[in-house]
TrEMBL record:
Keyword Mitochondrion: no
Superkingdom of the source species: Eukaryota
Protein family: Belongs to the TRAFAC class TrmE-Era-EngA-EngB-Septin-like GTPase superfamily. AIG1/Toc34/Toc159-like paraseptin GTPase family. IAN subfamily.
Single Gene Ontology MF annotation: GTP binding
Entry protein name: AIG1-type G domain-containing protein
Compositional bias annotation for Polar residues: 141-160
Organism: Perca flavescens
Keywords: GTP-binding, Nucleotide-binding
PROSITE patterns reported for this sequence: G_AIG1
PANTHER family, per database record: GTPASE IMAP FAMILY MEMBER 2-LIKE-RELATED, GTPASE, IMAP FAMILY MEMBER-RELATED
Domain AIG1-type G: 169-371
Residue stretches in coiled coil: none
Region (Disordered): 139-165
Pfam families: AIG1
Length: 376
């Protein structure tokens, strides 16, 4: 996809410090070298291909629009406690001065304004979702993800996009969850590339009885693998709470992805209600953070069945679980030594984190906005 034109935004208003704060927010840059009254330079840009035009005085308006006749957005930033009439007059003045009566001026609204106004208003939230939308449409955002990299794609096309300096600082928690004997510990060992780390063996009794964590680095990303006992066993209710508490405590350190481990050769009655139990334990949004990790990929191979055929033909209840988890799934064969399966998993994880980072940046800027604009 080719890169398209930059996003251009005009920021206007009578208060220099508000314009400066908004420009900083939009560009994700501090305009600190400029003093409050020294907003002389008429345009600012950042590496994210957003260009902001402004002017120190209302008199320079014509120049701003002469230099940049067709901006994507023309914003008017107003003070908290603004008067509706004054802003109406300002919008009227802007139309007159720019000799473009059809031009749309959007008033950036301080937090807490619930009134309806005779002019178009954006909250900071709306402004940033509009900017993100524009950037995505034009393929400009560094956080932009192609559909193939989105969570849900089980066949990522790009070669480990997460393996870059940008992500290496974030430690992601991968929590292995599932019923006893499904292969949680074996899958943990596959991810860690060390067969003996977590105890994994055939047994008629649960093998793992306590949560365990082991850290590693995969392709430059710091990863913490958390192995757990079966927390879905109704007969173990008393200890389940403690295991869930432990997982939550471990996951406070960073982003968390739940790996719901299931066996391709068996879908048990106990697994039918597994998502409900997962939600009870970790909250209603848990499935947005879940990837289904199917083990015993070799069994499918032996049966001459592809992973796609397995998913297409599996029981309706299992299909529902797969759907509800956004079709994020990966197939492991824990007795195999290849690293492809881990790479595939990490690409799905990376897609999920990118989505979260985009939201995080956006939320972060909203909070910063509240702070910097003095609107709280
Ligand atoms: N062939 C094959 N065997 C597997 C696979 N994954 C797990 N197993 C075997 O299944 C058995 C149980 O695996 P574990 O990793 O101990 O399962 P678990 O989910 O950790 O079980 P608990 O700790 O009891 O909850 C072990 O004998 C593993 O070697 C796989 O992908 N292929
Ligand atoms: Mg185990």
């Amino acid at each position: 996809m080719s890169r398209c034109k930059k996003i251009s935004v005009v920021v206007l208003g009578s208060e220099d410090h508000l314009k400066k704060a908004l420009i900083s927010l939009i560009l994700e840059n501090e305009l600190s070298p400029l003093s409050k009254t020294d907003l002389k330079k008429d345009n600012y840009r950042n590496e994210n291909d957003i260009c902001v035009f402004t002017c120190a005085a209302w008199d320079d308006l014509r120049k701003v629009f002469a230099d940049n006749p067709d901006p994507d957005m023309s914003l008017l930033v107003v003070n908290k406690g603004f008067s509706k009439d004054t802003v109406c007059q300002q919008v009227e003045h802007l139309h007159k001065e720019t000799i473009e009566r059809t031009r749309e001026f959007i008033v950036v609204q301080p937090f807490g304004c619930k009134e309806s106004y005779p002019f178009k208003c954006y909250t900071i939230d709306q402004l940033f979702s509009e900017l993100i939308q524009l950037a995505n449409d034009r393929n400009l955002m560094p956080t932009n993800t192609s559909p193939a990299d989105q969570p849900g794609s089980s066949t990522p096309t790009s070669a480990s996009p997460m393996i870059d300096g940008k992500h290496s600082g974030t430690e992601v928690n991968l929590v292995l969850l599932g019923m006893a004997g499904t292969g949680k510990s074996a899958s943990g060992n596959t991810i860690l590339r060390k067969k003996e780390t977590f105890t994994s063996k055939p047994s008629s009794c649960p093998v793992t009885t306590e949560c365990q964590e082991v850290k590693t680095v995969i392709g430059g990303r710091r990863v913490r693998v958390i192995d757990t006992p079966d927390i879905f066993d109704d007969e173990m209710k008393s200890s389940i709470k403690e295991h869930v508490r432990k997982v939550k405590e471990l996951c406070q350190s960073g982003p968390c992805v739940y790996l719901l481990v299931m066996h391709v050769s068996r879908f048990t009655d106990g697994e039918r209600g597994i998502l409900k139990k997962l939600e009870t334990a970790f909250g209603s949004k848990v499935r947005e953070q879940t990837v289904i990790l199917f083990t015993r990929g070799g069994d499918l191979e032996q049966g001459g069945m592809s992973f796609k055929e397995f998913l297409d033909d599996c029981q309706p209840d299992l299909q529902k679980i797969v759907e509800k988890c956004g079709r994020r799934h990966v197939l492991f064969e824990n007795s195999a030594s290849g690293s492809d399966q881990v790479e595939t998993l990490m690409q799905i994880v990376d897609g999920m984190l990118k989505k979260k980072e985009t939201y995080g940046t956006y939320k972060d800027r909203r909070i910063k906005g509240q702070d910097r604009m003095g609107w709280d």
